[in-house]
Design brief:
Helices cover about 15% and strands about 35% of the residues. An 8-stranded mixed sheet has the order 37-38-40-39-41-42-43-44. Strands 1, 2, 3, 4 and 5 form a 5-stranded mixed sheet that branches. The protein is globular, with a radius of gyration of 25 Å.
Length: about 700
């Protein structure tokens, strides 16, 4: 087969701009004085500056440049900070996070191991805070703007902003006890990135204490640089001990503490903490196997009372942004899928159901926050039964029709919500991605300097019936596809929980378009287990995470029968992370369909992954040994007949490199061999040159193995 010439400039632009995301703004705060504070990098650089956007005039101005305040010096990042950014999937430098006082006047900006105070109430004066020796992790200003707290050396410290020295609030008892940070599974799998919370009046701190003394320690090393010491991580694997998490209320002035009590034996996972001026602090806690979520209110003495319990025989989902107190503290927002689809409900302060806010034909995905002045909620939702698009809505808390803020075609979600307004991120299928702030009824665009590829993708979205189910799929064809010609196929797969791959967003299909233009048709399919199609669809993967393999095969065959230009005699599959797991399984179990596979950073054995994710779907290994065995890539090694390319970052602290080493050994033991590419990277590959070569190696692999019909 003769292949078309490569448009190398396209893929170089995709990788150099991180899929055209560099240069796009990210709103970090909407302040009480009508300004949006946002971070933005140049179009092909990774160091972000801090800007201010006047929501009345639309004018932007530079507030803080890391280059200037650091005098050109590099930022020093600790291992803990690198790990925190990995959990955030954040690969840029410079301004990555800020913390703002309630009045919006004082802004704390961490830059590596240094912390700066930007005083917007004093002519934007910037001064460095004296936080002492060591690395200050996760600095957060008190709502009153008078103090800042941060984590250092396993303890929570507090510093007054008047220049007096920082002091430790807590005292770690030994090396396995840490105060003020979220443990790995909370930040990676439960959506909770914080480990301490200021009271609204700034007089108290609610502080997490993590005891990891019973948790297995894994060592992530970099064999590429043997002079580097391995980095230890407390990483709990299925069936083993988790971090023991407790909470206490600390008086900032006196240092006195009151333990917060709940049934931690039954509900060991701390999923969410919400503390606002409208009511007592709220906790969301889960049991180990995640069948129950419980909303608790903290009393003044540290005791708790149960407001609400949500139960699901398979598992409860927790990434929905609730509970949240309504203004006045007499009611709170809750999200539940007890009815089969998600809905937004209002409960009173005792937890009793009051009313539902749900609107026919619209399925909510998450509550992002409240506009307390106008009594509205900011909610991301999708059309009923259509998981390929989302919209941003403003929803009246007292009932009434929802106001859709976006155009109904694309992928729109809230990036930031404050009392001053809400930032909406939009990725349409045609045209530029954008960010805009809604303040009241006014929409204010946030300026972007991101590059833009002017040619729209050649993509078709549709639905297919297969194996008794209806699947969403997308086909990306070459821009110059010839009528009547049949093309080899690449299945671009993810297939895992909590993520849709078939989305009407330009950013989701750009890399697929480059592959297509290189001589393929790229197919994506959302199988059972992915969100947005109701409770039963999502829970189909219970106890067997390999179930999506059958869905992908059945749907792909049906799509090939419907579209004559797909040559199902020449099919490859590629995926990363859960998609890498799927790509490896598909290649091994279905050699009659897949002639080659590329597995990136794959989970190969669920017994090697973490507790909170794996046990949610697979339950404990002691109760589902057959399921773990059936879902293991290692146990399919002997079935491998086709070429398989394995790509993995050797310092990956999420899907450890041990997964790929285990697969290589399992294949060796049965006389099989594969191609292996190791990267000096983590689970992400932010380096543009590495990312470019990853795409080129994958393309050349498929061209080699899918060139001629059998």
């Amino acid at each position: 087969s003769s292949w078309p010439a490569l448009d190398r400039s396209f893929i170089e632009a995709v990788t150099a701009t991180q899929h055209f995301s560099l240069g796009a703004p990210s709103v970090l705060a909407v302040t009480a004085d009508g300004k949006a504070l946002f971070r933005r990098t140049p179009a092909r650089e990774r160091r972000a500056d801090l800007f201010e956007l006047d929501l009345a005039t639309g004018q932007e101005r530079l507030l803080l440049s890391p280059e200037r305040v650091l005098s050109g010096n590099a930022e020093n990042l600790s291992d803990a900070e690198r790990a925190r950014r990995e959990r955030l999937r954040l690969s840029t430098l410079g301004v990555t996070a800020i913390s703002v006082s309630d009045d919006g006047k004082r802004v704390v900006v961490p830059l590596g191991d240094r912390v700066f105070l930007l005083d917007r109430g004093a002519g934007d004066a910037v001064r460095e805070l004296d936080v002492g020796e060591g690395y200050p992790l996760d600095p957060r200003i008190a709502p009153t703007g008078t103090q800042v707290a941060f984590v250092r050396d396993r303890n929570l410290w507090v510093a007054a902003l008047d220049g007096s020295p920082a002091r430790p609030l807590t005292k770690s008892e030994h090396e396995h006890i840490e105060y003020g940070t979220a443990e790995f599974v909370a930040s990676e799998e439960l959506g909770r990135l914080r480990g301490y919370w200021w009271s609204p009046d700034g007089k108290q701190l609610l502080v997490q204490r993590s005891d990891a003394s019973k948790v297995d320690t894994l060592y992530v090393s970099n064999p590429r640089d043997p002079s580097q010491a391995p980095v230890p991580f407390q990483y709990p694997r299925p069936g083993t001990a988790n971090v023991d998490v407790t909470l206490a209320l600390w008086e900032v002035a006196s240092g006195e503490q009151r333990p917060v009590s709940w049934d931690r034996e039954r509900y060991p996972y701390l999923v969410r903490v919400e503390w606002s001026t409208d009511g007592p602090a709220l906790l969301l806690v889960n049991d180990r196997q995640q069948h129950e979520s419980v909303v608790l209110a903290i009393n003044a003495d540290g005791s708790t009372r149960t407001l609400l319990t949500d139960h699901d025989a398979a598992w409860v989902n927790v990434d929905h942004g609730a509970p949240l107190w309504l203004p006045g503290g007499r009611e709170f927002v809750w999200m539940s899928e007890q009815s089969g689809d998600w809905r937004v409900d209002i409960h009173d302060a005792q937890g009793q159901f009051v009313r539902s806010l749900s609107q026919p034909g619209v399925v909510p995905k998450a509550v992002h926050g409240l506009d307390r002045t106008t009594r509205h909620a900011w909610i991301t939702a999708q059309p009923e039964g259509d998981s390929t698009r989302t919209d941003a809505y403003r929803v009246p808390l007292d009932g009434g029709p929802w106001q859709r803020l976006t155009d109904g075609d694309g992928w729109h979600w809230f990036g930031r919500v404050d009392d001053g307004g809400a930032a909406v991120r939009s990725s349409p299928l045609s045209g530029r991605s954008s960010v805009a702030v809604w303040a009241g009824d006014k929409r204010v665009p946030v300026p972007s300097v991101a590059e833009y590829w002017p040619r729209d993708p050649s993509v078709t979205f549709d639905w297919i019936e297969a194996n008794g189910h209806r699947f969403a799929y997308a086909l990306v064809r070459p821009h110059d596809a010839a009528p009547g010609k049949r093309y080899p196929v690449i299945l671009s797969v993810y297939g895992g929980p909590h993520m849709n791959n078939v989305v009407r967003a330009r950013s989701a299909v750009l890399a697929d378009q480059w592959l297509a233009n290189a001589g393929f048709i790229v197919v994506t399919i959302d199988n059972r287990g992915t969100p947005g199609r109701g409770r039963a669809w999502e829970r189909a993967i219970l106890r067997d995470l390999s179930l999506p393999v059958g869905d992908q095969v059945a749907a792909l065959r049906a799509i090939g029968a419907k579209h004559a230009d797909l040559d199902l005699g020449r099919v490859g599959v590629t995926g990363w992370s859960f998609g890498g797991y799927m790509a490896a399984l598909l290649t091994m179990r279905h050699p009659e369909l897949f002639r080659a596979g590329v597995a990136g950073a794959p989970v190969t054995d669920w017994a090697l992954y973490d507790t909170a994710y794996t046990e949610r779907y697979m339950k404990l290994p002691s109760n589902n040994s057959e399921g773990y065995a059936a879902a293991s890539v290692l146990n399919s090694a002997k079935q491998l007949e086709r070429p398989l390319l394995l790509i993995h970052g050797i310092t990956d602290d999420n899907v450890h490199f041990a997964h790929s080493l285990a697969l290589i050994e399992a294949l060796y033991a049965v006389g099989k061999s594969i191609e292996v590419v190791t990267l000096s990277s983590t689970h992400m590959v932010p380096d543009p040159e590495l990312a470019l070569q990853k795409e080129m190696i994958q393309l050349n692999f498929f061209r080699r193995h899918l060139g001629v019909s059998p």
